[in-house]
Design goal:
Layout: H1 6-22, H2 25-37, H3 41-48, H4 55-68, H5 73-85, H6 90-103, H7 108-116, H8 121-134, H9 139-156, H10 159-175, H11 179-193
Helix pairs in contact: 1-2, 1-3, 2-4, 3-4, 4-5, 5-6, 6-7, 7-8, 8-9, 9-10, 10-11
């Protein structure tokens, strides 16, 4: 049996390095499934942290974590993100996001995944409005709202969506912390302000 954390992290690191060298997904899955069976959820969380953003690694590990800790909102969100990035689809990811929200209604990541999984442009924009209302300081949610509202305005010639996009980009511009951010937002605002519906 693999000793907790240090040896487990080393073993995961070896499996990832071999996968990156060979591209052999089957072998990676086989190794990760073997490693996860001999460890606790907490040990897995600590060991896999350096590869948490790799869906092919986080997915199999966090499946085991969620199986052991079904109400761990953070784990549910990480698994949902891994599934989303690997193309598992909105139904599976949305179900995980719903579980995460039920477990911890203050988990912003869960709300982000919930909003992302809506396929209808108008309904997705409405979801982002709800996320921004719940977390008014969440600039990432505001950016997603602005982008979705702008897309909706363009796709459906919707004046209200256009006004919402402009207002939200203006808020982001006011909160920008770098010249690069301000320039990008000014470009977006100029485009939207000159858009004719």
């Amino acid at each position: 049996m693999i000793a907790p954390q240090t040896d487990l992290r080393t073993a995961i690191g070896r499996a990832v390095a071999e996968y990156e060298a060979s591209g052999n997904m089957g072998l990676l899955m086989e190794r990760l499934h073997m490693l996860r069976e001999g460890a606790t959820a907490d040990a897995l969380v600590a060991a896999v942290e350096p590869w948490r953003e790799m869906p092919e690694v986080a997915g199999p590990i966090y499946e085991r974590v969620v199986a052991e800790q079904p109400n761990n909102a953070r784990a549910l969100v990480i698994l949902a993100n891994a599934y989303w990035l690997s193309g598992r689809g909105p139904d599976v990811v949305g179900a995980l996001a719903d579980r995460a929200i039920a477990a911890d209604p203050q988990n912003r990541g869960a709300w982000h995944m919930w909003a992302l999984t809506e396929s209808n442009q108008r309904d997705r924009t409405i979801r982002w409005i709800q996320v921004v209302e719940r977390f008014p300081q969440d600039l990432l949610a505001k950016a997603a709202l602005a982008d979705n509202a702008a897309s909706l305005a363009s796709a459906e010639m919707d004046k209200e969506a256009l006004a919402l996009a402009i207002r939200t980009y203006e808020q982001l511009h006011a909160a920008a912390t770098s010249d690069q951010q301000r320039t990008a937002l000014e470009t977006a605002l100029n485009t939207l302000r000159n858009y004719r519906l």
